[in-house]
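[job 4471] stage=fold_predict status=RUNNING
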Amino acid sequence: MSEEYASLHENQQKILRKVDEIKNTLESIVQELTFLRKQNKVTLKPQLEMKPTGMSFMELLELPDNLRKTVLVVSQLGEATADEVAGKTGRVRNVESHYLNTLVHMDHLEKKRKRRKVYFTVKYKR
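[job 4471] inference complete, writing structure tokens
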């Protein structure tokens, strides 16, 4: 029993050391970015213009990566067809169409038909 405890304690200490290393690395990155921003050498810009997704941060994180990417693209575009979303994600239209319909079924997106085209929008929950 004490050997198991010693092993667990040793593993815990290793994890804590790694966490400290990560913390120190992040602190040095923040210091460097602060220094560079003060010298106007670096500007931090978001990669894409985001509109609200209607989902909480935790809901987004709980989605699989493939569905999260689709939701974020629809959010960015506002209203989009499967072709438009596929163009942004780099996936084929039929795969993107399946993901979009899955998100509609999960109640994260709304589906509207306009003539022959189907448009998807983010469903805002109240």
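[job 4471] summary: Residues 1-45 form one domain.
[job 4471] exit 0
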